[in-house]
Design brief:
3 helices
């Protein structure tokens, strides 16, 4: 669950993003959910735009977040911002203030000594 400070941080990161998924006349379909899943896998933070069904956008957004396991960081007008962190911490792209990315371990150098 995102706290208000995290949502604010994500909205700031999403400011320059363009919507990756457009919701049209078909509403929430399996193919739309697959598109949202694919976008979240690649980006973690995405925007979706409601071109149709604007009256039901809150209900549709709730359905999308439940089906994809994502969280809504906010909605401005007809554009919603979704976030889902990656399962593997080393593959995450977004870290909240105060979080530290995991340290990358360098492969150990093995020194082979030759007998003289």
């Amino acid at each position: 669950m995102l706290n208000p400070a995290q949502k604010k941080y994500l909205r700031g990161l999403a400011h320059s993003l363009k919507p990756l998924v457009l919701i049209g006349g078909g509403g929430v379909t399996p193919s739309l959910l697959a598109s949202v899943e694919e976008a979240l896998e690649g980006h973690e933070l995405i925007k979706i735009r409601f071109n149709d069904h604007k009256e039901q956008k809150k209900e549709l957004l709730e359905k999308i977040t439940q089906e994809t396991g994502s969280e809504a960081a906010g909605m401005i007008g007809h554009v919603a911002t979704l976030y889902r962190s990656r399962e593997e911490p080393e593959k995450r792209k977004i870290f909240f203030p105060g979080e530290k990315p995991p340290k990358k371990t360098k492969p150990s150098k093995t020194v082979i000594k030759k007998d003289r």
